[in-house]
Write a structure and sequence with these properties.
The chain is built from 6 helices and no strands. The chain is mainly α and 117 residues long.
């Protein structure tokens, strides 16, 4: 279970870093003739590079989790990433946490608790 939580944490931090990176670029658009320059812009954004590395590390750890846990028990725990990303987005990106998002977080936490028992 500990490795699953580490994998989820790394993936969630990676997601936030990807958002930081694309925000610094002013967005990402793949239009005809601009694919290569856009890929180069992406590849030179440190938050995006670190985010991708964290996702890759998260995936490798997740493979270990899958080798030792039932998928039907492990995968619902991934729902915690929604909670982590929402909280990190609030404090690191200034995004709002609305009442409906709070309700969703409560439901996710309840579901993960029930499934993990």
């Amino acid at each position: 279970m500990q490795m699953a939580l580490i994998s989820i944490l790394l993936g969630s931090v990676g997601q936030v870093l990807l958002k930081v990176g694309v925000s610094r670029l002013g967005g990402v658009r793949f239009e005809q003739g601009s694919v290569l320059p856009t890929l180069l812009d992406i590849a030179t954004q440190p938050p995006i590079v670190v985010g991708v590395l964290l996702f890759g590390t998260s995936m490798l750890i997740w493979l270990g989790v899958l080798s030792s846990m039932d998928l039907s028990k492990a995968y619902p725990i991934v729902g915690l990433s929604y909670v982590l990303v929402t909280i990190m987005s609030r404090f690191l990106l200034g995004e709002a946490i609305t009442a409906s998002r709070l309700a969703g977080i409560a439901l996710v936490l309840a579901g993960v608790t029930v499934i993990s028992k």
